[in-house]
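In response to the reviewer comment on reproducibility (Comment 2.3), we provide here a single inverse folding case reported in full, input and output, so that an independent group could reproduce the run without further information from us. The structure tokens appear first.
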């Protein structure tokens, strides 16, 4: 894990019973299968978004499991990689919500650098096999990350899209923070409540109400 201001917050996790078996599992998986994202990008979300800077947390599920897609930020792909369907729907909702034209790339680094923590609940996945690293210990780690963000004194907006993300609602204190929930942006569910939910404008309104700077959601 990179040396950031997250290190003292999460250091105790490395001594907990789940951590060593989890790391051994992932290492063994990499010897037998292709695993995404690459080792040096597993903790990219924590590297790009310091704890002190967090204003928003967007919670995903698995990393993308296709070639060249996952690079450690939920819903994001590197420039030059075709935008996955969920991200296409996110861009469509961003346009409907704030009038921002969809970017010609899928890289969300600019959000991460503004204090938007782009966290998946599971940080690795076997190529082509969604859910293959669920239940191995990553959820213990990412629950601690979510709980640490909840501990922040300043208001944070939590965007929980889909049932797996919404299951984490109990980790967030609604008296201090704001939760915006909806269906997942996947084509299988986006029309059941994600499209039309206007999460980006609502997020900025909640930040401004608390005296915090809004996010510039533009990517181009």
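Designed residues, in position order:
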């Amino acid at each position: 894990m990179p040396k950031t201001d997250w290190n003292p917050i999460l250091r105790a996790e490395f001594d907990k019973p789940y951590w060593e078996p989890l790391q051994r599992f992932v290492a063994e998986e990499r010897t037998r299968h292709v695993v995404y994202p690459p080792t040096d990008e597993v903790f990219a979300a924590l590297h790009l978004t310091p704890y002190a800077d967090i204003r928003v947390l967007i919670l995903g599920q698995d990393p993308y499991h296709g070639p060249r897609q996952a690079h450690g930020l939920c819903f994001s792909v590197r420039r030059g990689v075709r935008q996955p369907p969920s991200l296409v729907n996110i861009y469509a909702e961003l346009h409907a919500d704030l009038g921002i034209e969809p970017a010609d790339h899928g890289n969300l680094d600019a959000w991460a650098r503004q204090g938007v923590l782009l966290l998946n609940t599971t940080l690795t996945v076997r190529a082509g096999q969604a859910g293959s690293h669920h239940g191995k210990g990553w959820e213990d780690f990412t629950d601690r990350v979510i709980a640490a963000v909840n501990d922040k004194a300043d208001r944070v907006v939590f965007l929980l899209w889909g049932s797996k993300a919404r299951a984490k609602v109990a980790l967030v204190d609604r008296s201090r923070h704001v939760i915006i929930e909806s269906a997942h942006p996947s084509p299988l569910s986006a029309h059941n409540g994600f499209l039309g939910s206007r999460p980006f404008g609502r997020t900025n309104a909640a930040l401004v109400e608390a005296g915090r700077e809004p996010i510039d959601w533009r990517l181009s």
